[in-house]
Design a protein that fits this description.
By secondary structure, the chain is α+β, with helices and mostly antiparallel strands. About 20% of the residues lie in helices and about 25% in strands. The relative contact order is 0.16.
């Protein structure tokens, strides 16, 4: 029987094991990006309130067909149904994470990014919920810029 390997240690903090950072939003965006590259009709991602908000904005803005929350296991998951154009072209050409756990990006309503001169959207976490940049301007509220979609 093989011996279990000892946990890796952080060289700067002697004696403490390395911890894993999890970013559910980045994971969901990667699932969508990979699904589009593989021409999938649907992908699944781990459910969270933020992921549900991002999926709702993507649906409202017309970037995905639909999404469903499936209660399975302790957390559940989201099934995202991807959308393609009439000639099977990608509706989402680029989806990029902006604010990360290691570097948060906050913007006021005046400083929200205009993605491809208004042809794309920024998804923002605000005190009023997860909104697109257009909704933020209408509601006159800023927040954490989660990702951009074009």
């Amino acid at each position: 029987m093989a011996a279990l390997a000892a946990p890796r240690r952080d060289p700067l903090m002697t004696g403490t094991p390395l911890t894993m950072m999890h970013d559910p939003v980045a994971d969901m965006l990667t699932h969508i990006r990979n699904g589009l590259h593989r021409r999938k009709t649907a992908v699944t991602a781990r459910a969270s309130k933020v992921n549900l908000g991002v999926a709702r904005v993507l649906k409202d803005e017309g970037y995905i067909e639909d999404f469903k929350f499936v209660e399975e296991g302790p957390q559940g998951y989201i099934r995202v149904y991807l959308k393609y154009g009439p000639e099977d072209e990608d509706v989402i050409t680029e989806i990029t994470r902006v604010s990360k756990p290691s570097r948060r990006v906050y913007r006021g309503v005046e400083d929200l990014p205009r993605v491809r001169n208004g042809l794309g959207i920024a998804i923002v976490s605000t005190p009023k919920g997860i909104l697109s940049d257009r909704e933020c301007r209408r509601e006159h509220v800023g927040g954490e810029v989660l990702c951009t979609v074009a």
